[in-house]
Amino acid sequence: MRRFAYGADMGSAAVEGLLGRRVVARRALLRGFRLAFTTMSEDGEGGIADIVKDEEAEVEGVVFDLSPEDELRLGFAEGLEGGPYRRRRVPVELEDGEEGEAVAREVASKRPHIPPSPTYLDAMVSAATERGLSEGYIDFLLQLYPDEPTPLARAWSEDE
Question: What is the CA angle 61-66-68, rounded to 5?
Answer without folding.
Answer: 135
